[in-house]
Structures are given as C-alpha cells and as structure tokens.
Amino acid sequence: MRFGMTVRWRLTLWYTLVLFLSFVFLGGVVDHLARQSLYSQVDHEMSDALLMVTGALDRVYKEEGKPPATRLLDEINELGLPPQLALQLVLSGGRTYLVNVRSLPDPLLDAMRGERIGSDKPTTIHDGSHSWRLSRSVGGGSFGYQVFLARDLALVDAQLGAMRRTLLIALPLILLFAAASGYFLAGRALKPVIQIASQARHIEAQALEQRLEIAGSHDEFGQLAQVLNDLFARLERAFQQQRQFLSDAAHELRTPAAILRSQADVALEKPRSAEEYAATLATMRAETEHLSEIVDDLLLIARAEAAQLPVIKEPADLMEIADDCCRALRPLAQRKDLFLKWSVGEEVNVPGDARLLRRAIVNLLTNAFKYTPEGGVITVNVKPDFAFASVEVADTGTGVAAADLPHIFDRFYRGAAGAGAEPEGAGLGLAIVKMIAELHGGRVAVDNNAGKGATFTLFVPVNHG
Q1: Which CATH architecture has domain 220-305?
Q2: The dihedral of CA 241, 242, 247, 249: what is its sign?
Q3: How far apart are CA 326 and CA 305, in angstroms?
Q4: Residues spanned by CATH 1.10.287.130 within the chain?
C-alpha cells in the first residue's frame, strides 16, 4: 500500500530540509571563518614573538661576535615569552636548547629537524589529538642560528570544539522548532484549500446553485475558488439546459404520441368505413412524420453536443446550395400563397458540409414560411465578402416580438405568434441553424422590424484556398 503524504507534511519536510542544508552550510562557513580568525591571531602573536627573539639575538651577536649559549638563553628569558609558546634555539654545530618547555613531542621535533617549514609560513603539526602551530626564523650572520617557535593550540581547539558542540546542540532544537512552525504555518496557509474541499464536497447536482465562500479572496486560493465557482455556474447552466431539454422533448413527443393513440382508439371503437380508416391512417402518418422529424432533430443536436457529428468541410458553392433549397421549397411557398424570390449569381465557395448548410438554409426558409401571412414575400440573397459569405432570408411577416428576441435561438422556444400560427412546430429549427453555423466557425444573426418582418442572416467563413 502506498503511503499518501499530505501537502501540509510535504511542505513541512521540504521547509525543514532546506533549513537543515542551509544550517549545515552556514555552520561550515562559520567554523571555517572562526578557525581562520583564531589561527590568524595565533600567527600574529607568534610573528611578534619571533621578531622580539631574533631582534634580541641579533643584537647580542652584533655586540659580542659569537656569544656563549648561556648568554643567548638569558637574553631570551628576559623577554618573558607567554607560557603557551615553546621555543627551540638551534646554534651552529647542531646544539639545541629549549625555552619555556622541557620537551617537545616527536612529530614537532621531526618537523624541526626536517626543516619542513619556511621562515614566513607557519604550519600546523598534529600529535594525535594535540596540535601545535610552528614557525621558524634564521639569523646570526656568519655564525648562524635557527629559532623554532611552537604554539600549543589546545586553547584554540577547545574554543572551536565548544563552538561546534553549541552548533550541534542548537541544530536539532532549531530544526524541531522550524518543523513545528512550518507545520503550523502550512496548516494556516492551506486552510482555505480545506474549506474549499469541505464546501465543494457538499455541492451536488441537485444544489449546483451553491457557491464557495472563501475569506480573503484576493490571493491564489481566492482565485481557485472563483474558478471553481465559475465551473459550478457553467455546470448549473448545463444541468438546467439538460433538464429543460428533457422536459421540452417529453412535452413535444407527448403531443404526437397522444394523437396517434387517440386515432388508434377511435379506429378500434367500432367498425369504420374504408374512407374513415384512410383518413385515420393519413392523420397517423402525418403525426408519425412529425414525430420522426422531432426525433431526427433531437439526435442531430445530441450528436453535435457530444462532438460526434461529422462535419466534412469541403469546398461548397453557397450560391448553388441556396438555389437548390429555394427551388425545392418553392411549391410549399406557392401552396401557402407566398412569393419566394431569389437570384443566382457567381459561385460563392465556402469550406463546409453541404448537407448541413442545406439544412440550415431550409430551416431559415421554413421559419419564414411560418411567420409570413398569405400574400407575403420572402427574399433570399447570397452575398460574398472577404471574410464571410452570407445567406439572407428576409420576410414581410409579423417580425419577432421584443420579448421573444433573446430566446429565438433556444431549443424548443416558440414565440406566441409562432405557436398560434404553426402549432406543429417543435421550436428546434433556429437552434439547429445556430448550431450548424457554429460548427462551421460562423454565426447567425437577426435584423428585426417588429410588425413588418425580419431578416435572418447565416454567416459562413469564405474559402480563400
């Protein structure tokens, strides 16, 4: 089973790890600087002592030529060297004398005999757990001598050790305090996320009108809450549209289904004549066709919304498509005593699905037929343009009421005049026109003149290829 660590713990661990690495790095830098500073003080002290010793010895050599060793040692003792300094005087001939110490460790004596150091470069000699700082100076003219000055580093090592122990003791305490503080601060910082999760958990499909409420909504979490609220708003609209769609679909399908059942019941009540049976079957067939049209329209919309409607965009002549639609619907216009006008011009090529474009134009024409009284005129114009080609369907009907204008492209919506004049309409025609226009990257618009007619325009991008 995989262990799932919360974001709060991950932030705390990352914060503690970064602090630990920073502390280790800083501790190393502090230790190095402290060591360099202490060693620098030691070297300065030894340099001053060497200058005093060599100055005194050179003065004796200058005054007495080749003084005895006791004279040189007395001169050195008179200088009063600090007790932590051990001095070894090596005269010509290899005679060796110690000052301030009875003996020196073997590693230090080996370094002196091997002359591993230079006169101006102090070095550190280690004797197990003990350390010495060693410097050398030469003088005495032709007679010559060497002065080795050793400084016991026990006090320096003790100071460095105390500092290191302090850092080692402080490190876990600081990390513990930092981890606790980081955990607390991470909890405070992530509190809005917990609130968002808690509130979002109680928002269900039946209560999508609820929204997240987060205090201090100007930070990143406030932006997240706003994004989620926008998402819930879109989901709410989608669910409302779905419920309305199902309700409207059920209502539209119920009417023809009820007519079919009533006609069947009437036919089965008692024996009928052949003419009566024929009339009943004709009515049932008309309602069946109406029912089939509604189902086809619903399937078309559902496939488009599910992105399963294939749109084959090939070069299509919008002028030719409009001409075919007008010729096909001219008999229907004549039966309704309407005058349908259109003209045929040059090709207007657009990248689109000719089948869907034909359906959009047919829907615009049938919509105009419904709302135009007898004797009215319907005019179709195809206009090319650089960016969009357009198909205008203008009628001299009743126009669109102001209250209906914002909803005419909604599914199942029918204005009052439409419902009265054409009760068989399902209110899907203009919704399908809008859907087809958007599938082609275009749009549909209406120019309304209430009481005098309306002009619907389908815009389709022009094919420049």
Answers
A1: Orthogonal Bundle (1.10)
A2: positive
A3: 29
A4: 220-305
Indicate the DSSP class of residue 343: -
CATH 3.40.50.300 for the 7-165 domain, yes or no: no
CB 380 within 8 A of CB 393: yes
- Give the residue from 201, 200, 206, 202 showing the smallest Cα distance to 236: 206
Which class does domain 314-461 fall in?
alpha beta
**135 burial level (CB within 10 Å; 0-12, 13-18, 19+):** buried
pLDDT in tens, 10-51: 888 888 888 889 988 998 999 999 989 998 888 888 888 888
Q: Which residues, in sequence order, are bridge partners of residue 447?
A: 455
User: What does pTM read for this prediction?
Assistant: 0.50
Surface-to-core class of residue 280, CB atoms within 10 Å of its CB (0-12 exposed, 13-18 middle, 19+ buried): middle
Residues forming CATH 3.30.450.20 domain(s) in the chain? 7-165
Give the helix/strand (H/E) hosting 237: helix 220-269
Domain with CATH 3.30.565.10 in the chain: 314-461
Can you read off the two tokens belonging to residue 292?
A: 């089939």
What is the C-alpha to C-alpha distance for residues 432 and 361, in angstroms, rounded to an integer?
Answer: 10
